[in-house]
Amino acid sequence: MPFIASLLRRVYLSLSELAWSALFILLVIHLAASYLLFMLAGEGDLVGNPIDFLYYYMVTATTVGYGDLSPKSGFGRIIAVLFVLPGGIAIFTAVLGKLLTTIGTIWRNRMRGLGDYSERSGHIIVLGWQEGQTYQTLRLLHAERQANEPMSVLVAKDLAENPASDYTDYIRTERLADADALVRAGVAQARAIIARGANDDETLAAVLIAEDHAPNAHIVAYFADDRTAQMVKQLRPRVEAVGSLAEELLSRAARDPGSSEIAARLLSAASTDTAFSLPVPPLPRPLLYGDVFLRLKREHNVTLVGLLSQGITDLNCRDEVLMRGGETLYYISGMRLDPAAIAWARMGDVS
Which residues are listed as membrane-spanning (predicted)? Predict the structure, then answer.
């Protein structure tokens, strides 16, 4: 008896909440009962072939009513009017309403930061929200997003809803240094992480957690204090720590007019000529930097400005420097190069 009472209670709760399991059971019962009733009424055209009956049931329940199959006897028509039609419509309406409610709930949860993007890969995660700066960052990331690149994910505190739904998905958290929030943001397979907390301490804590959970992601962090940025560069070489460049730009612009505009154009995704990076794949033979410079200029109309090799960046690289693969080239161009479009094998032939 306790088992039966418990079972009946579960059935009652499922029906009262219109759970998917309850709707499925009701559908099966109503479908089977309709089939048996039509069989008793002698409606051979409807029940002779299970596929034909299922087809008739669905077009009746959805009120489409093609008319190619219909009960012929009076008793069969009474069954259709009093049982099949009202029951089928009720179940179909309940399923449709439940489906729309579920979709709406999922969408609202995503907007409120309760979604789960743990399976996403190759995307960029942005940690922290500062009204103007972060919105601009997300907009620029979206502007450069490739056709097959997933949307970025914002992880932030104290936001009731996604503040930039056109540019990013959103994960809500109580603190930036939250491993669970990073996991929901898909940190394990993220391509890059940008961290900028309310202060340097919060940013540093978020960076340390991100490092532990994102073994392959490139991490970029902004620190208001240049000393903190330098410390992170020394202790965490995997993290690209960025400090404020305002003072440097002001002093340089005073001595070299227009230099601040040059710096802004090199970093702006909206600029005609912007700085990009290009990873060098394993090469069949070493190449001279000067040969690569000329080849890229002639074939792709880009200008090399530097080379990153073994952790050292050279912005005035000599022509005779050898490249063996694994380096990163920095160049100025109106658009990002496709690495697959570069013929590295014949790069040394500049005649």
Answer: 20-41, 75-101
Query: Among residues 244, 262, 296, which one ends one of the domains?
Result: 244
> Quick check: is 11 in a domain?
yes
Q: What is the pLDDT of residues 54-95, one digit of tens each?
A: 998 898 888 888 888 889 888 888 988 899 888 888 888 888
| Residue the block writes with tokens 């439940």 | 98
Write out the two tokens for 289.
């930097």
Final residue of a domain: which of 111, 145, 171? 111
Strand blocks (E) in the chain? 124-127, 152-156, 168-172, 192-195, 218-222, 239-242, 274-279, 287-288, 303-309, 312-314, 322-323, 328-333
Q: Which of 105 and 243 is assigned the larger pLDDT?
A: 243
Identify whether residues 334 and 311 lie together within a single domain. Answer: yes
pTM: 0.67
Residues 6+ apart with CB under 8 A from 57: 31, 34, 84, 88
Which one, of 162, 167, 163, 208, lies nearest residue 187 by Cα? Answer: 208
Distances (CA, A) of 232 to 94, 176, 195, 196, 308: 57, 18, 13, 14, 19
Helix (H) or strand (E) holding 235: helix 226-235
Phi, psi torsion values for 193, nearest 5 degrees? -130, 130
Nearest residue to 138 via CA among 170, 164, 172, 106: 164
Our count of domains for the chain comes to 3
Domain that holds residue 30: 2-111
**CB-neighbour burial class of residue 289 (10 A; exposed 0-12, middle 13-18, buried 19+):** buried
262 in any annotated domain: no
